[in-house]
Write a structure and sequence with these properties.
With about 425 residues, this protein is an all-alpha fold. Helix content is about 80%, strand content about 0%. It is built from 17 helices and no strands. About 55% of the residues are buried. The mean pLDDT is about 95. The structure holds phenylalanine (PHE).
Length: about 425
Amino acid sequence: MERESWQSRIGFIFAAVGSAVGLANIWKFPYIVGKNGGAAFIAVYLICLLFIGFPVLVAEILIGRKTKSNPSRALASLGGGKAGLCIIATGFIVSSFYSVVAGWILGYFIEACLGNLTTLKAQGSAANLFHTLVASPLWAVGFHFLFMFFCVAILFRGVRKGIERATSYIMPLLFFILIGLVINGLMLPNADKALQFLFSPNWSQLTPMAIITALGHSFFTLSVGQGTMITYGSYLSDDDSIPGSCLPIALADTLISLLAAVAIFTVVFSVGAQPTEGPSLLFETLPHVFSHLPGGYFAALFFFFFVFLAALTSEISAMEPCIAYLVEERGFSRGKAVLTCGGGAFVLGIPSALSLLFLDRIDFFVTSVMIPLGGFVAVVVIGWRWGASSALRELLPEKGSPLFSFYFSLCFKYLSPLLIVLVFLHALGILSL
Ligand code: PHE
């Protein structure tokens, strides 16, 4: 059977941006920008993207396109041994617990439709609602299942008709909803305070810790280290420029994060609430704020729909490496591979749906250990195993400028692996600043 490929370069870009834009852009980036020096942090973040996020993204897409195969075979054929299997397992585990949290979002979207997110005026009532809902096994497992069902339905149809077509509708829709949320936010009282919190440059808040945070985030947000970008790259045609395709991905991811930051914190500041991050921002602070906001019903509805779309396009990308592996290495039909992977991720996600502690632990282990290792393997395979000069011939076939060659070989061989190790040691508490 002929291997599938993207129909167009823009289709690939939509799918990859869909993968990159996820919960981290929405519940993490806005907060870390505000807390770590606003525009000063954004400047540092862009530099971090340049030296860690972007080169690792390019490395993974290159590995995929060169080998035209799933991460297991791809890495094995470039001298990475069995590391690809571990990377596929990472994506699979991520998809299991990501679907649980995305299920909460779907559940909150339904709550928003029912008008239940605009009656939480009393202090603590939004937090109570959240804890009651997630403590209900039926609610948590049920929405985990429903969310997984949507993903399976898209993935079932294949790369072009499933992933590419779905993301080419979803991403523009997501962007338009986000613009609507930004405009709404900017018209609220105290919008200037939110913009000041987010963007006024404060160099004194830019601590070494903030720089490590920027490094780590620039890496995770681009969905590297878990086989996703290797697999998406494997469906890319040889004629498409990799740096030219990866640049818009990194820029769109950053732009959407910045817009989400404006959309969220203008709403939070409009009623004088405190900025927060993570699940408490989405499921506690925002519903409380929506309850005080004129037009809060629609703001809540559109907001949770926006987050749902972002999570959906990330989740399908986390599942695809495992599906490609089952099809190419184990001889499964696409349908059987999708059902096996979807069913397996659903079952593996159940402990996370039933226990917040379990969810926290597995999330920490995967994002602090397995994902950095996966990214590290990708750049080291490119820089040292395949060899930076062979990789560069493939990457810049028209003999790009010597500056580009220097930049990529510096990153692949030294800078990116070193920075990943730094992030890794810091996340494990071995390196403290
Ligand atoms: N890039 C996603 C985010 O920012 C992370 C992710 C990708 C998670 C793929 C799951 C699957 O949230």
